[in-house]
Amino acid sequence: MRLHYQVQGDGSPLLVLHGFLGSLDNWRALSKRLAQQHRVYSIDLRNHGASPHAPVMNYRVMAEDLREFFADQDILSAHLLGHSMGGKVAMQFAVYFPNLVTSLVIVDIAPRAYVPEHRPLLDALLRLPVHTFTTYGEIDAALAPSVPGPALRQFLCKNLVRNECGGFRWRIDLDAISVNYDELTHAVESTMPFAKPSLFIRAGRSRFIQDSDIADIRKIFSNAEIIMMADAGHWIHIDAAEGFYEVVTQFLAYATPR
After folding, report:
1. Does the chain have fewer CB atoms within 10 Å around its N or its C terminus?
2. Is 84 a known active-site residue?
3. Domain 5-113+188-255 of CATH type 3.40.50.1820
């Protein structure tokens, strides 16, 4: 699959992978800053953003999508930065294709399986007749009973685009994502450890990485550093933007071959 992407900057290659129901737009500000030191490829994963839609969606096929991207762009090795679902894609790719990975930055996700806690959210989005609305405000109000957090509603509405009749449609393949959602809760498949530099950034106000995950992280990623950003939630790059940028740039400088 030919993934949609944007590229900027020069230097060692760095791929930025967004999270569940996100897109490369969520990382635009940080990608621009990181492009001061790296050639940054911001990527839309399958069924997200402007990338193609497909009926199958799991970490194996998404890792294969990245392998095809490396080949198309003539990238011999790159740093991978992945948030949440994108972090699992990055981990799976590193385990499958370690020779293509310079280092890993994994943002607030562990390699374990998770409970399917987003199923009610997906069901709420599927029930919403977005083609009948004419303004974002109407959609926001209709979502409010099921999605009480305004920041989350705003995040979700970034996946809407106008249709030809003046209403809206989902840019993401919501049906395929829903059908394959259980696959996205699965653990990373690993038969041998990934020994290159890896940085796991854990949010203090998030439950996605628990103390009990640390041993499992280091079992698969034997050269892993795990740090906590205490005042950040799951979207660490927004909640603690400056500190996050400093931590990531310092790690990438250390992990970039001289």
Report:
1. C
2. yes
3. yes
Closest CA to 217 of 132, 106, 119: 106
Mark whether 178 is an active-site residue. no
Lookup: tokens for 149: 């957090």
Catalytic residue of the set 25, 140, 146, 175: 175
Give per-residue pLDDT as tens, 153-199: 999 999 999 988 888 999 999 999 999 999 999 999 998 999 999 99
Instruction: Classify residue 223 by its DSSP letter.
Output: T
pLDDT above 90: residue 258: no
Strand partners, 86: none
pLDDT at residue number 73: 98
Tens-place pLDDT, residues 134-159: 999 999 999 999 999 999 999 999 99
User: Whole-angstrom Cα distance, residue 145 to residue 151?
Assistant: 14
Cβ within 8 Å of residue 163, ≥6 positions away: 131, 169
Whether the model pTM is above 0.90 = yes
User: What are the tokens at 20?
Assistant: 């569940």
- pLDDT tens string 7-66: 999 999 999 999 999 999 999 999 999 999 999 999 999 999 999 999 999 999 999 999
The string of pLDDT tens digits covering residues 193-219 is 999 999 999 999 999 999 999 999 999
**Is 83 in the active site?**
no
Domain spans in the chain, listed from the N-terminal domain onward: 5-113+188-255, 119-179
Tokens of 219: 């079992």
Pairwise CA distance, residues 235 & 36, whole Å:
22
CA neighbours closer than 13 Å in the CB half-sphere of residue 56? 8
With H, G, I as helix, E, B as strand and everything else as coil, classify residue 186: coil
Residue among 4, 118, 186, 234 flagged as catalytic: 234
